[in-house]
Design a protein that fits this description.
2 copies of one chain form a homodimer. Chain A is built from 20 helices and 3 strands. By secondary structure, chain A is mostly helical. The first copy, chain A, has a 3-stranded mixed sheet. Chains A and B meet through helix 1 and helix 2 of A and helix 1 and helix 2 of B. Bound molecules: zinc ion (ZN) (2 copies). Chains A, B: It is an enzyme of class 3 (hydrolase).
């Protein structure tokens, strides 16, 4: 079958993948290894590459190649790949190269400065860089929205969760808002009766790292195709062939790093198990940010905070950190399911986490739409933290609106994905339990293979073959249904 | 002053520098971090970037831009930069793509087979591949020599040491040859009387790494602009703004890693101190391979094996590896200056090392010129090893002419740089001592700043502003003079 236009597009995407590989590794290195004086040159190099990739993704021939390929005789997967090529093309061609380069430079600068500024609680310094990032992000959103009828915010949201709209987020988050504060109160009352033994530190970084590596092995991470390092903001980067996970360590508490590592392992295994024969092509990529988060939360929350899972984790903890009463499985699970409203999103428990996301969504949406300005963020943050979690963050930028670097990196429209992911994850496990009624017994017996097999088959190996709603329907038999998340929280925390 | 062509060239070189930055970091990562399953994707990514950089360096407009810029009104540094742009352009454009590809194929075939062939002492197998590499290297040399009036060998030598000619190498190596074998005998006789205490291992990798980092601090490495990691083949990579040094550790002996680290620190500081305002341009690059080696050998040999330096090193060694009689300064210096003719170049001491290089030069020059053929190598090797070092290598290809992979990789014309570097280093220190008669006392007092200041001013900050002979003359007041190297060896080893 002769498919010259499709074949040409296929080769161009291989090339983008190869050059993007160097960019991904250099970005990981920037966070995990790079000394401070390397930052300016690195930012310029990444901006240059960003511009080059944008140039390759916007070459004029692509439009007619996509049109010609649509008329070629393609197999189903090729046609799906072509659909994703078109999606990538539309995303890339909305923005002029000058904007792509300016964004890359502004984001790198803002992120780099943030490291020291956050330590110094220096909002005044940070806002100077953030203002420019937001200005460019609004410009990007306007161009993305042009001609689609989408609002500026929806145009950004669509980049991370194709097909998702703020109206839908409003509905789902509105539902959450209607029962979450009450649920938090109920859980807090129930847990007030419980005795929980705190682990006694300090825990050396070396011991925590060894524990984290063992947890990654338990979760099936392939160390021949990836590694674990440290960075101030943990992430899962690199390329599917070589996944670069990072974490950070606190000597006084090992759980944030341990559970963060298990979380990133979920991202990492998704990447490591994408369809190999499609790597380098749009079809070979992870479906969406929300889907990605559904994997990390399947690992961290659905499995990691499962009462039976604590029996698998407990011996690992004792092996690396010594014997302590706190490490007993029942207590370990109580520690992991302790609900405690706090300042920091990444340290938040499963129940209060959605409140952090709702808060950010309620700030970033009007921020992009131009209804508020960066100067308004702290006051809004303070008000919403008090309203949703009853916490006072006034003057505490470090643990308030400067805790995340997302906005400083121009990553706006992304936060909802965390809670969408939590909902998808609850839906996956509800589906698994229908198919395997003994699932919880198998987890208790240390047999995690059924979970990994289900995820590999239904999510990982699907790549971007289907659009999100279709993937969700094929995997679980229905579209996104927040009832599963509610049932999960009620069963785990009030059951 | 309007200089449109020069400005255009300037911007194109900035772009090459930025993209090359990502390539350098990814290459470093491949050696220092990358898990095995990442290799195929990484190799494809680096090859893609290599092709892209070659394409950018051979764009047809460059020729006329260079011609136009030559007629523009440029300042002295700009003109020097343009001269170096021209050099880079000629190197990239001398060879047709077909030859570049044939060379790359032949080199990797030869190198790959060499790994097993060397183990098996299989000269007959190796020579089959080497013949093709030499044939293509002669073809390359012919094209590089075309129209320059250079001989084929000189055309290759000029790639690594701009301005150096084999007539000059003949002169300095001829001088060296006239006194080196006798000097080696004298030193051996003198050292036969000495008692040297061997260090007692094992030495943990962690302790050796901490020692190496302290040695780098002593040598002034800027850890805000670089780092030290591990790889199986130590090198100094990265970019001037972010130098990535590597070393490897042997638990039974700490000196190879320690002195290797000090050696690479010399390369690293050269890169870190290139003229900042010219970074990204050819003028901002290190001058040559020989000059680079003159920095690593200034650190490793001129300073590192200086009797007074042992008094600075000894407390560092004891701090990290514990107290041992072997670590006493006098003994440490005897260990570092032990002369012992051996088969292997990379294990050779300061005094016998030049013999290994002279031998290779005396074979590779006539080989490229077509005066001998690959079949003649073993007999020449055997004769010269006996003549220069009194060692019998007959039939021992593994530790003889198959020990280095340089020729098999098509790297011919490079070997002289090692000993030119040693000679330059001796010349720098002779110059410093004329200007600062108390230099050795200052080294003994731990004051290394005068050395670093001199190197920074005379070598590092000069970048590629001058061709090598001119740089040498400006730095030391004369052209390369082997008498300084002779005086250095006599003073250190027979004094
Ligand atoms: Zn995540
Ligand atoms: Zn070197």
């Amino acid at each position: 079958m002769s498919t010259p236009a499709y074949t040409e597009l296929f080769q161009r995407h291989q090339r983008l993948h190869r050059l993007g590989h160097l960019q991904s590794i250099a970005q990981w290195d920037q966070s995990a290894n790079m000394p401070p004086k390397g930052n300016e040159a690195r930012s310029l190099a990444l901006a240059e590459m960003g511009g080059l990739l944008h140039q390759l993704a916007t070459e004029p021939q692509l439009k007619s190649l996509l049109e010609q390929a649509a008329a070629e005789n393609l197999e189903a997967d090729q046609r799906a790949n072509l659909r994703e090529m078109g999606r990538a093309w539309r995303a890339s061609n909305a923005l002029p190269q000058s904007l792509v380069e300016a964004k890359s430079l502004a984001n790198s600068r803002c992120e780099h400065a943030w490291r020291a500024q956050r330590q110094a609680n220096d909002w005044a310094g940070y806002v100077e860089n953030l203002r420019e990032v937001v200005r460019l992000t609004r410009e990007e959103a306007t161009l993305l929205a042009d001609g689609t009828g989408l609002s500026r915010y929806d145009a950004l949201l669509d980049l991370y969760e194709p097909g998702m709209r703020s109206a839908e987020v409003d509905r789902v988050f509105g539902d959450l808002r209607s029962w979450l504060p009450a649920l938090i109160r109920q859980v807090r009352e129930k847990q007030a009766q419980e005795t929980v033994i705190r682990p006694v530190g300090p825990f050396t970084q070396a011991a925590q790292k060894a524990l984290g590596l063992d947890a990654m092995r338990l979760m099936g991470f392939d160390f021949e195709a990836g590694r674990l390092d440290e960075s101030s903001h943990p992430f899962c980067g690199g390329v599917p062939e070589d996944v670069r996970m990072t974490t950070r360590y606190r000597e006084d508490d090992f759980l944030p790093s341990l559970m963060g590592t298990i979380h990133e392992t979920g991202h990492g295994r998704y990447e490591q198990n994408l369809p190999r024969e499609w790597l380098g092509q749009p079809l070979g990529q992870a479906r969406s940010m929300g889907l990605h988060e559904s994997q990390s939360l399947s690992f961290e929350m659905q499995l990691g905070s499962h009462p039976a899972f604590a029996r698998l984790l407990s011996p690992l903890v004792s092996r690396h950190l010594g014997e302590q009463p706190a490490f007993e499985p029942g207590n370990l699970n109580r520690l992991l399911t302790r609900v405690n409203p706090g300042f920091i999103r990444v340290d938040a428990d499963e129940v209060t986490y959605p409140a952090h996301v709702i808060l950010r969504y309620e700030i970033e949406r009007p921020l992009v739409e131009g209804e508020i300005e960066v100067e308004d963020i702290p006051a809004l943050w303070d008000a919403k933290m008090m309203e949703l979690l009853g916490l006072d963050t006034r003057g505490n930028y470090k643990d308030g609106c400067m805790q995340d670097v997302h906005w400083g990196c121009g990553l706006i429209g992304y936060f909802p994905c965390y809670t969408l992911g939590a909902m998808y994850a609850a839906q996956w496990f509800a589906t698994m339990r229908r198919a395997m009624p003994d699932l919880d017994a198998r987890i208790a017996a240390g047999d995690l293979a059924p979970v990994f097999d289900w995820l590999r088959e239904n999510i990982w190996l699907q790549g971007s073959r289907y659009e999100t709603p279709e993937l969700v329907r094929r995997a679980s038999g229905e579209t996104l249904n927040p009832a599963h998340f509610k049932a999960h929280l009620q069963s785990r925390y009030l059951g």
